[in-house]
Amino acid sequence: MNSDRYKSFDELAASEDASAFRIEAEKRNSSICVLAPHGGKIELGTSDLARAVAGNRLSYYLFEGRKPKANRDLHVTSANFNQPQAIAVVESSDVALAMHGCEGDGEVIYLGGRHSKLAASIAKALSNRGFSVGTHKNPSLQGIDRSNIFNRGKLGMGVQFEITQALRVRLTDKKGQLKAPSLKDFVDAINEGLSQ
């Protein structure tokens, strides 16, 4: 993983043109929110997955890279992600789910975060629907740092999804969704995990 160009959102906003990124956020009457802090062209597919999981029920927040190139520059690590709307959405929720993209072969979802009980419930539901689920070998991709944006909800713990590119591409491609497990399976499994 390359080191980040910017150490905080403030630094990014001071250096990048306003057209380089887009923020979409909605607070709903929900105790759960879904985030894609590296959405758009930063980690492809994560915005689409976050939107799908939020549906019309859960609060959500998207930070999307929109530059013609070099969107990786807009990656601010989750522990340093301090964009005010993101903080507002997360802090008004009990629990946050964060959609991230990672490298890796095959279609795998790595679950992490401080809410290990919820992560285990979601992992079971995803596995039951045919998804390959695991824990990332890289400690920095396990989401256990208290300062991670998704661990700043009222309960102080959230769930991190690190999803390989192959799976993100397939789930967010209209043709790829015809193959199981589908985007609907992904959303249904997460909702089932949340309801346990």
TrEMBL record:
One Pfam family cited in the UniProt record for this chain: Gamma_PGA_hydro
InterPro entries, per database record: Gamma_PGA_hydro, Gamma_PGA_hydro_sf
Protein name: Replication protein
Higher taxonomy: Bacteria, Pseudomonadati, Pseudomonadota, Alphaproteobacteria, Hyphomicrobiales
